[in-house]
Q: What sequence folds into this?
């Protein structure tokens, strides 16, 4: 104000001949109640009275008009104060008003054109076009910090993008804005018009500093000060070769090269064998034939044979003991299982998504905990997305001119009344919690409480104060409507923080809770910023969240439950409503789990029935009930389930919580592993012939000595692999790996003890011709011929010889290597993330909400840039690295976030951040009426209080106009944070920033603070992952430039952080599992390194092919699929290790015969034990209502079983026939010695 008055003084000296056109107040304005006309006066200027000095500060100047200071006060101290962030803009704008109201030479550029007695009722104001353009250019980029909207929106009567120099000034002087008491008609010209010289005072560009030392405007308030607009880096071009995907081309070429080499090698070997056999020298002995080998075994072979023999003796002795003392073993096993399962009493099931997906030590989790502890947890929400089946659109024609404005059907007044009825019904809901009534007011976010206990409701209806009467408020006569809900809506969407819509209605836009309702949060389905075209209304009820307060959290949950119940029963033919509450997803997951229990039960029942029936080998119809193994099969299943319960119980003793993934997946896994071992033991016993002088316990002990090393190999490999998987940072994967590893090992221990004892009892029953289940009934003795099972005969006589034919083997290799090449080509194309829609049942109401969320919403989640404790805000240096106004660093926090918002399509930062610091600086300025205190007590005095003892916080001096520093900064900051916005001061910080600043005890300093903005709309998992990555990059840049820790926080970061490293975690987990399998296999196969390489290579092929299936079947990579991949690694061991071990101990004369024999004897057990068992159970999962079951369990489990079976039973035998390990000479020698004098074939004993 000093400057505009200084320019007036200069003009007084230059134009003494000029005179005033008005002075003083006269009659009441007829058109704007509460305003007064000015009195006609054509005399010279008169001195300024003392009552105007607090505003203009210069008492000695001759000025024309002091009563009009009220006009300045309203326009200068409330609205243009938003422009004070930019000194040049503020100076130019004040020049416009000061020259109008108090210039001593008004008659030079003002013409009073209409009078009513002594009242001036209309005036023409000649304004230079150059001045108007310069003022507009200096102000057009200024932002209102608390509302993230251009300040022009508050003063132009329309969206800032539609403002220009002339219509902005015309609107400010228009009587219809509700503030101007009479028409002031601006006439724009740079040359004299009708004898008047337009006001064309000096202006400043926003890039210039002022004479009083004020600096140029900041970048966010002056685009010209920013330099070139930031340009996002170009997207990396796709990796291509000759215009095609590079990986596809590379793998295709690699596959062709492999085929040429492989086919050449096969043909060369065939020709070589043909020539050798036809030669006169006869066949050359195969070096792989053990009968042609001498016994000069290597040291490693000897060590392997001794280790193998040690295991055989150990397990044989143990098996014999279990059969001889079944009661001791079974009772001991039962006691241990019961004791271990007792931990289930302490079982905890984690359903909290944060606990499931985010490690307590992860960056996102630590940042969340920091945010929650300093600012309180992020609020809960209940949200409605409302559309209408009506397609009617209508035009609104503004009475005071302008083009017609189309409105969508959802903004029809009748529809709005119906939506308001719904909103009020929801506000009136009453829930019950522990006998107490709970209403929305008990739990809602009320930022101005206790002064204003209205709940925050982000709704278009809050533009109308949630009132039917305000919605119906109309100004007009019997012929025309001058203003109604259309005009109020159009104003509020451009100035949501306004306390007066400046139409004839003069209704506030600010919500009843004391904060603005941004249109991008309350509407959807519009184009650009044409909110009148909206096709959806969004109503959001923020609800307080609570840390460690179960009572208050329980009340919130109870109200949300009542809200969901109400919305499910709500019917309105004109409204289509999608809704969601904070508890909805967890509720639906629980419901989904309960509804899938029947599916899971049926799936396991089918597997149980199959196991019970398939274990028996029926020799004749007469002996069906004797030869069946139903009771033994049931016992085997119970052992599997006991191992699961024991694992759960043991970890529950240690307080490790369960997850739904553990409960749903581990029984499937352990059943696969356990049943396979059961089939191997039982079927090996069924094929075995008891040796002369051998008793039952010796026979079963010998069989266990043969098969237990193989079982131990697979089980221990899986256990180690799973325990290494527990190194993962993802809680879901870590928990699964721990429980699975222990369950598999306990299952192995129970099978070689309890199950072996039960097998001995069942064998005695069968030998005694007693019926299965009803063992007290005995059949008469009869001669029965022992035969092999159909499946064993099929594998031995048909299947194994066929796939190992000379012409079939190359085809199999070519097909499987082709599958591998394809999978490698697409492994980098598997999508990362988890579509949240998949976690919901098919019939969930939340699916409609997700669909509408994606279709209609335009703004994403809030994102907070948190400045950690320790920054000195009381120093200019500390302020400059954060703030966004005049004098702030060009790379400050606010400036960097603002720059990021300019390329929001890349950075996903949608808006300039709301800055408490910049708003505080504006609030505390002496030119503002906001910061006052009682000079008697020092207590804060709100701007709305009229009391002579209230004085400005800071003096109107050059130092007083500077930012507060030192003690001054902390003296007034608590006042700012407690000040409620009002008509006199719209910048009170209570509503917007009460939780944004964490003050030290007794207000001695500022701790952690945040600066909030919004993400752009995020629809799919890749969008969320990109948003997290961009926000962290931005926060890291801010941290470097400020030399102080700043991090970005949004509510979804804890869920999506895992995807930043999921590819690395997957490679690490699967790599560690494969490495452990390799090491364990090497040791337990008797240090046969090449056998371990083949097992590991085959399992790696299965895993790579799993990625190929995931790409084909649209299965994304996430924690759930990673759990399944870790599990597939374990199950693959079952498919491969038994075959390889059978091959390694075979003494047939060449690799093909050894592979055929291994496949015939072990293949049938693997096929019946895993493949058939799982296949029926998996197919039932396809009937599940749960999409996550269908995608991640049915599809992935089916792929695991099919790929494992095909690789283990087709590809692996062929691979062994080509490059299998040579026979271990020491093992052959030991085997021949062991069976010397018998007619047994060693492998049949296996």
A:
């Amino acid at each position: 104000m000093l400057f505009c008055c200084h320019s007036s003084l200069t003009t007084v000296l230059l134009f003494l001949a000029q005179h005033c056109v008005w002075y003083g107040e006269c009659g009441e304005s007829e058109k704007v109640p509460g305003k007064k006309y000015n009195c006609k006066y054509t005399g010279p200027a008169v001195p300024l009275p003392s009552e105007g000095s607090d505003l203009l500060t210069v008492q000695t100047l001759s000025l024309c008009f002091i009563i009009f200071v009220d006009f300045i006060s309203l326009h200068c101290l409330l609205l243009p104060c938003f422009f004070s962030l930019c000194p040049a803009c503020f100076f130019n704008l004040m020049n416009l008003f000061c020259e109008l109201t108090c210039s001593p030479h008004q008659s030079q550029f003002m013409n009073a054109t209409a009078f009513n007695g002594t009242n001036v009722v209309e005036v023409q104001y000649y304004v230079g076009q150059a001045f108007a353009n310069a003022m507009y250019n200096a102000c057009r980029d200024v932002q209102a910090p608390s509302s993230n909207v251009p300040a022009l929106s508050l003063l132009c009567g329309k969206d800032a993008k539609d403002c220009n120099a002339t219509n902005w000034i015309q609107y400010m002087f228009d009587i219809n804005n509700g503030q101007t008491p009479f028409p002031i008609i601006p006439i724009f010209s740079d040359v004299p018009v009708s004898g008047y010289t337009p006001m064309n005072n000096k202006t400043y560009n926003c890039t210039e500093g002022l004479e009083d030392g004020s600096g140029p405007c900041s970048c966010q308030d002056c685009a010209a000060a920013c330099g070139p607009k930031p340009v996002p880096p170009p997207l990396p071009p796709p990796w291509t070769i000759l215009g095609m995907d590079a990986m596809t081309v590379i793998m295709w070429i690699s596959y062709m090269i492999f085929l040429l080499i492989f086919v050449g090698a096969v043909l060369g070997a065939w020709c070589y064998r043909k020539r050798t056999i036809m030669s006169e020298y006869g066949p050359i002995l195969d070096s792989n034939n053990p009968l042609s080998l001498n016994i000069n075994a290597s040291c490693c072979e000897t060590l392997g044979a001794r280790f193998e023999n040690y295991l055989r003796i150990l397990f044989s002795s143990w098996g014999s003991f279990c059969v001889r003392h079944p009661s001791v073993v079974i009772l001991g096993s039962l006691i241990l299982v019961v004791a271990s399962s007792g931990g289930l009493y302490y079982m905890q099931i984690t359903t909290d998504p944060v606990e499931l997906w985010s490690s307590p030590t992860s960056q996102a989790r630590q940042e969340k905990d920091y945010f929650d502890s300093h600012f309180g947890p992020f609020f809960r929400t209940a949200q409605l997305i409302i559309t209408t089946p009506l397609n009617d659109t209508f035009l609104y024609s503004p009475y005071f001119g302008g083009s017609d404005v189309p409105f969508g059907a959802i903004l029809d007044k009748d529809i709005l009344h119906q939506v308001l009825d719904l909103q009020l019904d929801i506000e009136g809901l009453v829930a019950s919690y522990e006998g107490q009534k709970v209403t929305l007011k008990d739990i809602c976010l009320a930022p101005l409480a206790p002064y204003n206990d209205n709940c925050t409701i982000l709704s278009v209806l809050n533009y109308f104060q949630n009132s039917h009467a305000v919605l119906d408020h109309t100004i007009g006569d019997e012929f025309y409507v001058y203003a109604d809900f259309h005009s109020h809506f159009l104003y509020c969407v451009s100035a949501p923080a306004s306390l007066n819509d400046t139409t004839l209605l003069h209704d506030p836009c600010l919500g009843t809770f004391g904060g603005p309702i941004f249109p991008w949060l309350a509407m959807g389905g519009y184009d650009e910023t044409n909110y009148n075209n909206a096709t959806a209304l969004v109503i959001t009820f923020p609800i307080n969240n609570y840390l460690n307060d179960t009572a208050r959290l329980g009340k919130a949950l109870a109200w949300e439950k009542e809200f969901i119940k109400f919305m499910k029963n709500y019917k309105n033919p004109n409204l289509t409503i999608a809704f969601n509450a904070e508890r909805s997803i967890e509720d639906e997951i629980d419901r989904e789990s309960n509804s899938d229990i029947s599916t899971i039960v049926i799936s396991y029942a089918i597997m149980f029935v199959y196991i019970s029936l398939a274990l028996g080998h029926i020799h004749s119809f007469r002996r069906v009930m004797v030869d069946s193994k139903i009771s033994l099969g049931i016992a085997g299943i119970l052992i599997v389930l006991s191992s699961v319960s024991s694992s759960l119980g043991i970890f529950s003793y240690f307080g490790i919580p369960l997850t739904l993934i553990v409960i749903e997946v581990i029984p499937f896994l352990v059943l696969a592993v356990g049943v396979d071992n059961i089939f191997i033991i039982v079927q090996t016993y069924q094929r075995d012939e008891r040796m002369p002088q051998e008793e039952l316990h010796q026979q079963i002990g010998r069989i266990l000595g043969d098969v237990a090393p193989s079982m131990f190999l697979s089980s221990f490999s899986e256990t180690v692999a799973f325990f290494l998987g527990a190194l993962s940072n993802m809680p879901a994967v870590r928990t699964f790996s721990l429980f699975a590893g222990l369950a598999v090992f306990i299952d192995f221990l129970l099978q070689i003890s309890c199950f072996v004892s039960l097998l001995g009892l069942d064998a005695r029953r069968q030998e005694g011709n007693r019926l299965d289940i009803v063992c007290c009934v005995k059949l008469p003795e009869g001669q029965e011929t022992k035969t092999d099972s159909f499946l064993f005969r099929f594998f031995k006589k048909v299947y194994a010889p066929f796939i190992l034919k000379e012409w079939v083997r190359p085809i199999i290799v070519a097909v499987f290597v082709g599958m591998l090449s394809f999978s490698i080509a697409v492994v980098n194309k598997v999508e990362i993330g988890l579509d949240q829609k998949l976690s919901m049942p098919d019939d969930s109401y939340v699916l409609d909400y997700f669909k509408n969320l994606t279709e209609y919403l335009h703004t994403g989640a809030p994102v907070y840039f948190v400045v950690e404790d320790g920054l000195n805000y009381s120093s200019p240096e500390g302020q400059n690295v954060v703030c966004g106004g005049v004098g702030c660093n060009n790379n400050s926090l606010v400036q960097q976030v603002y720059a990021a918002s300019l390329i929001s399509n890349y950075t996903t930062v949608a808006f300039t951040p709301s800055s408490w610091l910049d708003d505080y600086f504006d609030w505390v300025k002496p030119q503002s009426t906001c910061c006052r205190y009682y000079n008697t007590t020092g207590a804060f005095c709100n701007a709305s209080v009229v009391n002579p003892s209230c004085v400005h916080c800071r003096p109107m001096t050059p130092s007083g106009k500077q930012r507060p520093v030192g003690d001054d900064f902390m003296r007034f900051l608590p006042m700012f944070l407690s000040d409620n916005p009002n008509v006199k001061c719209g910048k009170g910080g209570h509503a917007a920033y009460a939780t944004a600043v964490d003050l030290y005890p007794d207000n001695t300093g500022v701790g952690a603070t945040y600066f909030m903005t919004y993400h752009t709309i995020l629809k799919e998992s890749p969008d969320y992952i990109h948003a997290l990555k961009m926000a962290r990059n931005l926060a890291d840049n801010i941290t470097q430039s400020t030399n102080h820790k700043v991090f970005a926080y949004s509510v979804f970061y804890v869920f999506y952080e895992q995807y930043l490293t999921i590819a690395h975690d997957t490679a690490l987990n699967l790599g560690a599992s494969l490495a452990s399998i390799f090491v364990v296999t090497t040791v337990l196969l008797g240090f046969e390194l090449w056998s371990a390489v083949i097992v590991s290579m085959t399992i790696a092929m299965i895993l790579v092919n799993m990625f190929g299936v995931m790409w084909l079947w649209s299965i994304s990579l996430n924690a759930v699929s990673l759990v399944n991949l870790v599990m597939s690694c374990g199950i693959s061991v079952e498919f491969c290790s038994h075959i390889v071990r059978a091959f390694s101990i075979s003494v047939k004369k060449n690799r093909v015969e050894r592979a055929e024999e291994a496949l015939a004897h072990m293949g049938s057990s693997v096929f019946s034990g895993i493949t058939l068992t799982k296949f029926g159970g998996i197919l039932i999962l396809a009937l599940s209502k749960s999409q996550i079951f269908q995608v991640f369990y049915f599809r992935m489990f089916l792929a695991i079983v099919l790929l494992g079976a095909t690789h283990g039973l087709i590809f692996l035998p062929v691979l062994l026939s080509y490059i299998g390990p040579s026979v271990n000479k020491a093992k052959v020698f030991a085997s021949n010695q062991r069976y010397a004098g018998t007619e047994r074939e060693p492998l049949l004993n296996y």
